[in-house]
Structures are given as C-alpha cells and as structure tokens.
Amino acid sequence: MARDSSATKARLLDAAFSEFATHGIAGARIDRIAESAQANKRLIYVYYGNKEQLFDAVLQRALETGSESVPFDVDDLPGYAGAVFDHLVERPSLMRLVLWKQLERPGSTDTEAASYQGKIAAVRQAQEAGRIDAGMDAADVLTLVVALSQAWFGAMGGPAAGGTAAVGTAPGSPAPGNTAVGGAGSDWAPAQLARHRAAVVETVRRITAPRRDGS
C-alpha cells in the first residue's frame, strides 16, 4: 500500500508540474492534473490539501532536485552558473514554473530564505579569504550569478518564453528549421547554445575573479 501511495504521489507531482508550468496557479485545473496522473481527484486534497499547497510541493521538489543536481560551489561560481544553465536547458519548464511563482506567489519560503542566506555567507567568506573579488556586496554577487545563469531562459526566444520568438533575429542565430538541442521548447542550435553558455560563464568569471592589483 505504501508503495502504491508513493507511486501515486509521484504521478500527481509530475502531472502538477506540467500543469502549473503551463497554466500557472490560477489557470491550473485539478481535474486535468488528476486525469493526467490517472488518479482520483480526491487524493490531491488528501495528500496536499489544496491547489496552492500542491504548487508549493511541486516547487519544493523541483528546487530540491536542482540543488542535488547542481550543488552550490562557492569556489567555482563560473562553473556553478554553467551547471545551472545546463540544468535549465534540460528542464525549460522549470524556469516557467519559477516565473509563475514570482508572478503569483512572490516572496520566499523560510527554507528558500535560509538556503539563500547560507550561500551569501559562503560568498562573503570567500571574499574575505581573497578567493572572490570583494568589490561588490556578497548578496549582489550571488544575485547576479543566479540571474545571469537564468537570464536566457526568460528572454525572448528562450525556452521559458516558447523558444521561437527570436530565432534567427540576432547575429549568428540559427535559421528556422535548424536542429534544436535541449529540452522541450528549446529551438537553440548547438552553436547558439554553446555561445550563450560561454557568455554566462565568462561574465560570472569577470565579476567574481579577484583583482590582480589588489584594488
């Protein structure tokens, strides 16, 4: 019975992830989630309480998966930014989910706030040790690193925006019909993907590398 319950919860969370990423909280429908998960709608209320709590459970699981897949590495912030970029390439729906959260449920949970503060403290310690440039506040450094790693996924033509709006419009962009890479919704050709990733990594390197003149 416990195994069946775990399997049902997993199906519900998977179905809810897709539903919330596509429609947001207000537009999501419990009936569609239950149908997609091949589960009784009543079980959603039994396991999660209501639609908002189900969204919280979906987001929490997605963030935990991301933390496990991309551990924070204060001694290699460029590499960390590149790894976050790669994670989002494979999961463009995750960025859509995060954007819906920012629109409909702004603010952070206690768990999210504690995690962010821990990362800020790690950056500050690295600055004090001379491993990261100390010209900016640690909170600014971390915010910029995270924002840069995610920037392309909410931009016009990025996966979270549908992936097609800006295809072919920028210098070097792939022409329509080129082979796409990455997760569903991404129309980036390999060369374009590599260019965006390299830009993210290099920009993070430039803002975090200690200055050789010590200034």
Word description of this protein:
By secondary structure, the protein is an all-alpha fold. The protein has 9 helices and no strands. It has helices at residues 2-27, 30-37, 41-48, 51-69, 77-90, 92-104, 110-128, 138-154, 190-208. Helix 1 packs across helix 4, helix 1 crosses helix 6 (92-104) and helix 8 (138-154) packs antiparallel against helix 9 (190-208). The longest helix has 26 residues, at 2-27.
Q: Please count the helical segments.
A: 9
Q: Count every beta strand, where a strand is a DSSP E run of 2 or more residues.
A: 0
- Poorly predicted ranges (pLDDT <50, ≥5 residues)? 163-185
Cα distance, first to last residue?
63 Å
| Alpha-carbon Rg, integer | 20 Å
Our estimate of the beta-strand percent is: under 5%
Please sum up the structure shown.
Helices cover 67% and strands 0% of the residues. With 215 residues, the chain is mostly helical. Mean pLDDT is 85; it is low at 163-185.
Q: Could you list some keywords that capture this structure?
A:
mainly alpha
Blueprint of the fold:
Elements: H1 2-27, H2 30-37, H3 41-48, H4 51-69, H5 77-90, H6 92-104, H7 110-128, H8 138-154, H9 190-208
Helix pairs in contact: 1-2, 1-4, 1-6, 5-6, 5-8, 5-9, 7-8, 8-9
